[in-house]
Amino acid sequence: MRSLVLTFDDGPDVRYTPLLLDLLKHENVTATFFVVGRHAAAHPELIHRMISEGHTVGGHTMRHQNALLCTPSAIRDDFKVSIRLHRELTGTALRFFRPPWGISSPFMNRYIKKYQIQRVLWDVMAEDWESQTTSGIISSKLKDRVFDGAVICLHDAGEDTGGAKGAPRRTIDALIHTIPWLKAQGYQFLTMEQYIKGVDAHAIQQRKKGLVWP
Fold first, then answer.
1. Catalytic choice (9, 78, 123, 128)
2. 10 an active-site residue?
3. Which residues cross the membrane (predicted)?
4. Which of 35, 64, 115, 204 is most buried when burial is the number of CB atoms within 10 A of its CB?
């Protein structure tokens, strides 16, 4: 049995995230959502639904800002607010964090280490945010690039952070066709929490750069 981790950045978005959750529930697939704090605070019902349906929720900063353009105090305050908000919304400590655009700084790394949070990057992208892409192109890229143990990064939001208008809808449409194909190839879908626990040790051994330990 092969394994992969589906992850989604920049949400939740009330227009797209419920549709994605409906699809994942229909396919009996769990995923990991790296949510932007201000969006999560605006739609706590979506965070509660993620948790209740077995998904893992991680952090993606409060406002999706580039770490290299933030002052040390801004990064410190962002972590403090994010950690408090995550506990309020999920009832658990923040365990997983993905920096916006995958960009960290020495100050961000300091707080990741201080709060004992796992920094998570990715192995596979499908450029699903681009204006010229289509659901078919996204699906083809995923099929071509996936491998055993891959951490896949997609988006259920992001129009306010550089993504094209309507891009998450194309991602969902791509997954409607891609998830059944992945299942047919023998892939099991893990949350980041399951991945870390070593539910599938072989997949973890095969992974490349998706997980970065602080």
1. 9
2. no
3. none
4. 35
